[in-house]
Amino acid sequence: MSGAFCHIAGVGLLGPGLPGWAASIPVLSGAAPWVPAETVLPPPPLLPPTERRRAGAVTRLALAAATEASAGLDAAALDTVFASSNGDGATLGAILEALTAEGSDVSPTQFHNSVHNAAAGYWGIGTHSMRPSVSLGGHDDVLPLGLLQAAAQCAAWGRPVLFCAYDAPLPPPLDACHPAAFPFAMALVLRPGREGGLAGLRLWHQAEDCAAPATRGALGEALEDGNPVARALPMLEALAAGRPADLCWPLLDGGAVCAALSPC
């Protein structure tokens, strides 16, 4: 079988009623019911106090998942792929409001938080990383396309890669362009090779649609339509349960990203 093969060495998660990967394993594996709750964004412990105050909510969301996924690993040694469809929409909305208000200025902090690689920049500051970093968009396909990019880098370059996908609601009137109901983030550390880790992961792109898209469980029915990053839930549920899974994410162009997950 063709495609990019790597191993999952760490997982991070933050979403409604899912307060971290380790805490959410019982829910994801089906051993405990999912209880709806707001996503609580913790202050990023890896950032110095000044940057911690400057970091926006979307950056805190991304760093929470990325930090959990890389726990116990040398975070500074990881290449990174950060993927978000909306970026920091709240900051962008505030800048647009300021530009239309007479006598209002855009602060430098607002500007640097508004760029699409802001989360990657804060990660580099907090971990002192000098490794290559990619920041992607992708609209509703941000999860599978970002994951494919990360897996391809890991397999081609033979280096570990941190993949972090995250999205949060846009403020009005921007929310009409791309609605999101709640904040959600997930992260994986992908490692080259065929031994060790939590599971093996093979990804590939195909030009055809999925032959049979996966049936969503109760958690997927509740969350997947509310945030494009929550499309990761079938993979996370299989990881938590320690079971193999064949996954397929349809793309807007009519193609698909497919994955085969095999527990170690």
TrEMBL record:
Pfam families per UniProt: Ketoacyl-synt_2 (PF13723)
MF terms in GO: acyltransferase activity
Beta-ketoacyl synthase-like N-terminal domain residues: 33-200
The protein's name: Beta-ketoacyl synthase chain length factor
